[in-house]
Amino acid sequence: MGHMKKLMVLVASLFVFAGVASAHEGSVDLSGSGVSCKGISLYQDGYYRVFGRCDGLVYPHETTYNKYVLWAKTSANSSVMRVAEVDKGYFSGNIASPYDEVFITAEAESLVRKPSDKRVVVGKVDYFDFDKSKVAAVPTASTAPASTAKTGMTVQSATSTTSSTAGTVIGKILTSLLVIVLVIVGIAIGASLIFRSRGSVSA
Question: For residue 26, what are the β-bridge partners?
Fold first, then answer.
């Protein structure tokens, strides 16, 4: 019975930890006087991997402060932990604890345990929202016989175009036949009048 209780506690802890891990993944945004840094934080293999780049950092910051270091403040007890050195504007490092606040300081050495008071940029973690219920449904396209293009022209379907073309051809054929019939009738009438006139003259 004791083993079962320990197993249930372990499973519950894993669920809680997984929820915390996914909740603290997000984008990292830091800004300061003339400096802007963008990054991303992803949870993998028991650590939060943080990577990104900065624009506007000046090397050296001061005479003896020629290094930049990225720090993170943990969510649990607000302790400050070193994440990585910012090398030529780029940073990539790991942190084991969930964190909310990030900042970069100018340092004389890159492998320092505590940050100096020379903060360059400060920022927060904008957490990813994986709530699928907020995803909008894609509207289904309705079938219409004709649609209006951006130019204002009406684009007809292939069926209606074929029908209109066939109707035009048939109309032209009927018109041609009617003209031919009228011509033949006219010729016949003219010939009969000519023959009648000749008969009356010979008599």
Answer: 41, 127
| Vertex 94: Cα angle to 88 and 97 (nearest 5) | 135
Q: Tokens for 16, please give them.
A: 């809680």
pLDDT at 44 over 50: yes
Q: For 93-109, b where at least 16 C-beta lie within 10 A, e where not — what string?
A: bebebbbebbbbbbbee
The residues that bridge with 156 in the sheet, in sequence order, are: 146
The structure tokens listed for 167 are: 């109707």
* Closest alpha carbon to 91 in 103, 100, 80: 103
User: What are the tens digits of pLDDT across the range 80-118?
Assistant: 999 999 999 999 999 999 999 999 999 999 999 999 999
99-107 and 90-95 beta bridge pairing: unpaired
Which residues pair with residue 105 across a beta bridge? 69, 119
- Quick one: which of 54, 113, 126 has its CA closest to 81? 113
Give alpha helix (H) positions in the chain.
2-23, 158-202
Q: Is 14 exposed, middle or buried (0-12, 13-18, 19+ CB in 10 A)?
A: exposed
Dist CA 57 CA 99 (whole Å): 24
Q: Which residues pair with 110 in a beta bridge?
A: none
To the question of pTM greater than 0.70 for the whole model, the response is no
Q: What is the pLDDT of residue 184?
A: 78
